[in-house]
Amino acid sequence: MDTQASKKLTLKLGTGFQHAKVTNSTGSRYNKSTVGRMIDHIYYAGLNSRPSWSTANRFLDLFDHMPITAQWNLDALEVPAKKTKINAKKLLLAENNFVSHNRFTVLAEAEMGLNELCAGLIDTGWDQYARLGALDAPGETIKTVLSKNTIKKIKKRRKKFKKLTKNNCPIRDYIKSKSNANRSIKADRKAQNAKSIKKIADQILNNDSKSYWRYIKSYTGKSSQSIADGPVYDKNKNLTTEKHEKIKIWTNHFGELAKDATGNSRSTDKWENLISSDCDYYPECDSTILWSDITDALRDTPNNKAPGADGVPSEVLKLVMTEPSPTSSPAKLIQKIINLMYDTGDIPQCLETSVVIPVPKKGDLKDPDNYRGISLIPTLAKLVAKIVATKLSKIDAKYNIIVKEQAGFRNFEECAGQATTLYEIVRGRKIQNKETWLCYIDYSKAYERVPHMALLHKLRSVGIGGKLLNMIKGMYDAPKIAVRVGNEVSNPTEYLCGVRQRCPASPVLFDFFINDIFKGIRGVRDNDYKRGVDY
């Protein structure tokens, strides 16, 4: 493909890339018997200016093609700050040193406010991670599949090339060295591909789907983050490639979803008149949070998940999971913070903000509407939400609050059972030559449409109250979201409507919210049979 054809292709794809002209090259072409294939394809996006210059270097032998170099002004480039993250494996090796740090003891015994305690736990943890060498600063690593023998052949080829440029080597000797190096490179890559295929096969046989998909994404270079960091349409369908403008577009997109368009989401008066909340609440709503509740929630929390804005992964809190009672200082501090949150219904400010990451669904991936937002919630807030969800599920199991037609997000229930029941009903009616009418409802942006006050009043109307309801109210008092695209994170905005994606409590809260949708549609009588749902 020559230069003009490549320009047409990028315009057709709508990638937003710009082409930089190479001064001493007339375009891509195959040079037949001449050394090298010329390439002048430099495309760039997200920079504030064109390159100062770009040129082909005819005096380096790196590959089959002549390398090209481009230079930009430093003002047009922004060097991203190195991000540090916690290495859970290194921290596990120094577990005793971490949990025995005296700063945790001081915090556990101090009479401090909830905000100070939570901030102290996070800050002390980060100091400890640095002291124990459990922090990593991910950098660019260069991995090669080439063997030592192949690397020697490449070095020999380069020496021949340098002599060739000075007319000190016959071209036949260089071509021979080049052919030997290329054959060795192909052999190494073929061996690496065979090794990768065997590895994938082992992962599939061992049901290790996570490692399998990680390999697929690394092989294709298409992770959800790399896709979301690409060009994106604004509201006027103009394609944007500049990173600050893209952040604004994504922030506005998710901000609109979290906005209270009707003004009723937080209106108490609106929902008091529509939903009765005069009933008594179940005594389990005021039951205290036991240490076993905390450890059970920690055991149910998966590892290797992206942390929230605090950067603390779940593996850190799980260091105290095996304690039968809170004996270490971090365990006492964690229990103290969680009980304070549950008793007061307050959420510390450092746990209010969730980081939203766009994850592609289907359709044109330059359109923000074809993405769903996944919330990265701080680990401690996620732990509290998991405890709340467990309490709600136990109350529902005891008092049968959620109707049996609702199988989603419930223990010991599954959609396969619902589908089987539906199949048997349709099959039985078909045998009797009877018509069956089905109604499929797909909620559009379902989680984002739940009004906060309506949810609270709905919970109160079915007997959820006391400390449990206050805790849920605290979770939705002042939540905020910040959007992360690539390495850029936007400023936090208010989350005024909807339950949060990926929050452990959201599925069961949504079940409670839509529970009464089944009233009045419990099926029809068919001769002497009972109602449709009991068919």
UniProtKB/TrEMBL annotation:
Q: Which InterPro entries match?
A: RT_dom
In its UniProt entry, the species of origin is given as: Smittium culicis
Q: What is this protein called?
A: Transposon TX1 protein
Domain Reverse transcriptase, by residue range, is: 340-535
Q: Name one Pfam family in it.
A: RVT_1
